Fold this protein.
Amino acid sequence: MRNPTGRQLRFGAELRKLRERAGLSATEAGQLLGIKQAQVSNMEAGRVGMSAERVRTIACHYDCSDKPLIQALSDMTSQRTRGWWEQYRDLVPSALLDLAELEHHAQALRASTTARVPGLLQTREYALEIFRQAVTELSPPDIEHRLSFRIKRQAILYREDSPTPYEAIVHEAALRMKVGGPTVTRQQLQYLLDMSERDHITLRAITFDAGAYPGSGQSIYYAYGPVPPLDTVQLDQSHGVAFLDAEAQLHKYRTLFGRIDAVALSPEKTRALVHTLMREL
């Protein structure tokens, strides 16, 4: 497996965490498992496929007693199919492919933004304007690829059988920003209202009156895994997309979202605010 996906890399990283918690070196783990150290390294790099039984064997040798985590890792071995996002390989940054894969498998998603509407809730016209204003100017074909990719990512919110639960906490600054002009902004606000009526989508706003609050300086995306240790935080940074999964990092952002919750409006008051902003346009 020359180019493991983000999910395969995460699977390997979790195997490494199990080994490290057991206090074993890669060489010692190989001796326990009856394989070479290089094979252990390949497993932890997500470069080899594994069976659920193999995962259970490794967990046993590593003295891991976390049954929900072992089951979740075992389940990941049967989910190797590469999804629709692979059609965009070499057309969009690879980190976006990892993001789409993460969203596809997430049990639930939470987003907190201050400067723009979250990607999964953007209209086509709003997203188009965002891509046109990219710091690194994109060519027309690149813009089309990015736009198409973003719209396809939104499909997880429309699945008939099991749409992904999604919560967006959006600052008033993002709601007031006239991206693309009044018409595009009005359409975007109406779309937010429409989407917020769906049972699995929660929209909450933070007003200017809330002042400074923890996490106000960055956009935060939290993807819930089947068990808490498999949660993931995604951040947009100046050098690109970053994915965080260390235990301390996950704890930090769970705590941060708790504090953000404390200053966000209720869904009902958020809808009232959006209606007010639309009337002002």
